[in-house]
Amino acid sequence: MKITKNRYLMGFAAIVILLALVRLIFPSVAAPRVAAGEIQNDSTLVEPVLEEAETKTVETKQADKEIAEDKLAAKEAPLHASTEPIPLSKPSEFFNADGSLVKHRILSVPSYKEAFPDSQSVQYASARRWGVESVQNRQEAESRKRELVFVGSNPYFFVDKMNRSIPYLVPRAAVLLNDIGRAFFDSLQMKQVPLHKVIVTSVLRTKDDVEKLRNYNKNATENSCHLYGTTFDICYNRYKTVQDPDGPKRRQVQNDTLKWVLSEVLNDMRRNGRCYVKYEVKQGCYHITVR
User: Fold this and answer.
1) pLDDT tens digits for 122-180?
2) Cα gap 91→96, rounded to integer Å
3) Start-to-end CA span in the chain (Å)
4) 129's torsion region: left (phi>0), alpha (psi -120 to 50) or beta?
């Protein structure tokens, strides 16, 4: 007999109806079969799950009860139940066991000339690498402000009145100067010395400034590092006192003490590759060039 499309569809429909009738008459044929050796009924599978759920419920209730008791105890406890200091797990660099500040010793450097020996030639190479092209005069310097940043007095250092330089540096050197001022502040605080600012005495010089300076300063050279905006001078025999006008009178600090602290800061900066430093005896300053 030839199987046509209509006969095929009628046969398929008859088989579907037959299977539906079997499913209705014998519903167990659709139940999942359990392999041999596995769980034989649903009760053995459900009971362990119920037992585990009951155990977790008991543990959760117990944990909630303990948390509630801790909150109640904390609420009833006085705010200052004990004045004893909390013991530290390890010695702190900044605080004693009783919470007071650790006073650090002032060490300075063994020799200023040996600690800060960087010559003009060494600093000049770094100035040429990181600096701008030298400017002839102050009018030309005004047009170079896109390459330079203004350096003014701030909470960390004081810029002195300048006759032979102008307060501009390349950004890299300006960051170094600010870091030196902040480190000096931090070091004074750790050593419990009244706060003072370092004083910047010289920054960017024009060619005209260098020429005039050479008339009375033998140490001034034609190829000065100050021409490139990478170099500044910080005096070591003068400091700016930081004092609250409405606060208690500050104790006097000798300049030598502040010089020792500043030498430690510059020594760390130099060792960390941040700058070159020359100890200038006659000018009373540190000659510093960024690296």
Assistant:
1) 999 999 999 999 988 888 888 888 899 999 999 999 999 998 899 999 999 999 999 99
2) 8
3) 101
4) alpha
E strand spans, the chain: 149-150, 157-159, 168-169, 196-202, 231-235, 240-241, 275-280, 285-290
Query: pTM of the entire structure?
Result: 0.65
Compute how many other C-beta atoms are within 10 angstroms of the C-beta atom of residue 105. Answer: 6
HEC letters along 161-176: CCCCCECEECHHHHHH
Residues 80-101 pLDDT 10s: 545 555 555 556 666 667 767 6
d(CA 291, CA 289): 7
Calculate Rg over the CA atoms of the chain: 41
CA distances (Å), origin 275, targets 105, 118, 229, 280, 283: 25, 10, 14, 16, 19
